[in-house]
Structure formats: C-alpha cells, structure tokens
Amino acid sequence: MSSRRISTEAVILRSMRYGEADRILHAITPEHGRIGAIARGARRPRSKLGGRLEPLAVVRLELQTGRSDLHTVVGADSVAVHHRILTHHGAMTEAQRACGIVDRTAVPDEPAHAVHGLLRTMLAVLDARPETASEGLQLAFLLKLLYAHGLQPALGACVHCGRSDALVGFDAAHGGVVCASCQRSAPSIDEAAVTFMVEALGRPLAAAPVVESRPALQVRRVIEDLARHHLGVELRDRTARGA
Predict the structure, then answer these.
(1) CATH number attached to the domain at 5-81
(2) Each residue of 102-115: pLDDT tens digit?
(3) CA-CA distances (angstroms) from residue 51 to 45, 56, 192?
C-alpha cells in the first residue's frame, strides 16, 4: 500500500507507552473505523502531541499511512476535552468502559459513522452531567452500540412464530424474544427487561431509562449473547459489574 496523508476526527480509545518516548494509540474514526497509530516522540516534554492523545480525547488527527496497519501521527488538534469526566470517578469508569467496548467491537478500515457518533454522544452526556453515570445509561449505550453494528433485537413478537403475547424468553441466535411455546432452551426474560430495551432503544442516550437489578442482569445477558453470536466478541468479563 502506498503512503498517503489522511485527516480525520477521532476519539482516542487507548493510549500506550512505547519505547523511550513514543505512544501507540487506538482510535475510532467516522471514515476509517478503528485505527492504530504511533505518535513518535509524543512523551517528550516539548512534544505538541502528548497531551492531546490521552484516552477520551476527541481530536482531529493528521495521519501518514504506510505499508503496515499502524499509521503515523503527524499532527493532532483538540476538538473536545471532557474535563468534568476526568474529575468524577463514576463518569470516568463508564467512559473508559464505553471506549473499551468500542475498541473491541469496531472493525478496522470500515466506515463507522454511527459508532463514532454514539461514543461522542456518550462522552458528551457524561461530561455534561457526570452524576448520570448509571447501569441504565451503560446498558442503553451497549444496546445502541449493537444497533450501530447492525444488530437490532426483535422485541415485539416471537422470532419463531410471530406471537405477540406471552413473550418469556430471548433467543440470541435468532436475535429476539420468544413465546412460551417456542422457548425451548432460550433463557427466560421478564417483561420489565423487554420494556427497558424498547425504551432504551427509542430514547436519546441522555434520557436512558432507569433499570432495576433483576431486569438489568437479564438485559446484560441479552447484550452479551448477541455480541457472542453475531459479532464473535466476548463481552462478559469486561462489562459485567463485579466480574
């Protein structure tokens, strides 16, 4: 692949020390999906790059592509810095978790406008009101993230027979709820969990509904099972609280 210069907005997902003075970062971009890049000399005291390439930062990156999958950062300008997140433990935890999940689920070299936009919204919500960090917000983000990846759970009728009442389970392999007659081995799900998912997907992220502990566990299981079956990604260890 020939070398070329690209300019893109990016949310920094991860930033790692490399060698004596460099940084390697992962970022999500609208046009290029998840990218990896090296910022040479970014950790030197006089570097203009270092402070702009921390996780959660939104930046305009100037990148030089090359023969490897790792681009070279040649410039970075700040677009948004989430100061309030950085001073609130709960908001910081949720923001880091969101970035970690995006890092694991996003695909390199494929447009990711919806994923990038959703993460930007999540960070803006947490920065505007850090106290809103909650399990309901986290689950709403994850549901919307699955939707951004093309996975919308069928929640209105049984995915096997089309029955719209007595919906008692969720068949992740088929992507939706099932009735009592079709449940077979599908895990059970309460009406409250289904209602939460419908509301979470239908509302703006800033208006994520509250969720109680039992339906929250069921919704989390749905999200984990959908990601495993359809994205080939295991989320359990990194999203489950207390895991």
Answers:
(1) 2.40.50.140
(2) 999 999 989 999 99
(3) 10, 12, 44
